[in-house]
From TrEMBL:
Residue segments, region Disordered: 21-72
Superkingdom of this protein's organism: Bacteria
Biased composition (Pro residues): 48-62
Record's protein name: Beta-propeller fold lactonase family protein
Length: 357
């Protein structure tokens, strides 16, 4: 396998240029709520806790399932996005800020510098673009696939963590801006300030679900109107959320070593909770089959769960992973899972047979 470094080049004419990254030393405008503590901004009935982190993982006691592709040494990979159109797997590297693109057919990794470091990355659709929230620059980039040129950029608040597109509107969590920002045409059209420290988010069935990582709450918004539908308790220390089909979502509870399911249509409600053998820091799902995968970051495992029609959860299997799995993505056509190992800068390719499928 070969590894190549390729410079990232901005598109000659951007579809939208809402703002350029701040100049060196230029401080962004303070967000709404800046200066307030988390406890001051939290709902009175929901005390705050520190965000639940992945936790340190020991070296794997078992060989990782499938095969392992080395990424640049010390890269600290986080977000993973599989693109079925280009047959590439993208991984956000943080040290320094880069995108690693693994070409499945060629078994080759190319590395492209990026303007700032991101944690979670998501494709708008097969073939891109790739939503890249550069938390170090407070900017959301849309990156073309497969060229990896910047198509658009927009201000995204303080510490953007994850973004999702619904129609012509992109929602992005401002983790340290105490808000969820709605962008349309590269311009901010709304900010929702109910979450204190929003982390993961997703969208399904006309609703947007947002995890608040310090009040341990799931906020549900109407995607069209932006109105807050409700907020629900979300375990002891949640981080991310994913659609699992039929208007349901699953939340990974890192501190609680658990996965929870919710119906966010109509009157949203919690459906089920299941314990898992480790800190469930990231979650992925095949909504068509109702299969959930939870990355257990401190025990070097991925748990595979079944989601019933009623939202009930059943553990099907666990497989060994690379050290400290913090993110992953799924090829729903083959059942292959791509796992980022943070500790040793690795990409693990787990075939469905490893889960007994």
């Amino acid at each position: 396998m070969q590894m190549k470094a390729i410079p990232l080049v901005a598109a000659a004419t951007l579809a939208v240029v809402a703002c350029s990254p701040p100049e060196q030393g230029e401080a962004p405008a303070p967000p709404e709520g800046a200066g307030e503590t988390a406890d001051e901004r939290a709902p009175q009935d929901r005390p705050t806790t520190p965000p639940a982190e992945p936790g340190d993982a020991p070296p794997p006691a078992e060989d990782p399932a499938g095969r392992v592709v080395p990424l640049p040494e010390g890269g600290q990979p986080w977000g993973v996005a599989y693109d079925p159109a280009s047959q590439q797997v993208f991984t956000a590297l943080r040290e320094p800020a880069r995108l690693a693109a693994y070409d499945i057919a060629g078994d080759e990794v190319r590395v492209t510098p990026t303007p700032g470091a991101a944690r979670m990355i998501d494709l708008v659709a097969p073939g891109g673009p790739l939503l890249y929230p550069a938390e170090t620059l407070d900017t959301l980039y849309a990156i073309d696939v497969p060229s990896l040129e910047i198509e658009q950029e927009a201000p995204a608040g303080r510490g953007p963590h994850q973004a999702v597109q619904v129609g012509d509107t992109t929602f992005v969590t401002e983790e340290f801006g105490h808000a969820v920002r709605a962008l349309r045409g590269g311009e901010t059209v709304a900010r929702f300030t109910e979450p204190v420290q929003p982390g993961g988010l997703t969208a399904t069935d006309g609703r947007v679900a947002v995890v608040d990582v310090v009040t341990n709450t799931l906020f549900v918004y109407d995607a069209a109107s932006g109105e807050l539908v409700t907020s629900l308790p979300a375990g002891e220390g949640p981080s991310h959320v994913v659609p699992v089909g039929d208007g349901k979502v699953a939340v990974c509870d890192v501190r609680g070593n658990a996965v929870l399911t919710y119906d966010i249509t109509g009157e949203p409600r919690e459906l089920d909770r299941i314990s898992v053998p480790g800190r469930a820091f990231w979650i992925e799902a095949d909504a068509e089959t109702g299969t959930v995968y939870a990355a257990l970051s401190n025990t070097n495992k991925v748990a595979q769960l079944d989601v019933g029609q009623d939202g009930s959860l059943t553990e099907r299997a666990t497989v060994p992973t690379v050290q400290e799995p913090v993110s992953m993505d799924l090829d729903p056509n083959t059942g292959t899972v791509y796992v980022a190992g943070y500790a040793q800068s690795e990409l693990q390719i787990v075939p469905p047979t490893a889960f007994g499928n």
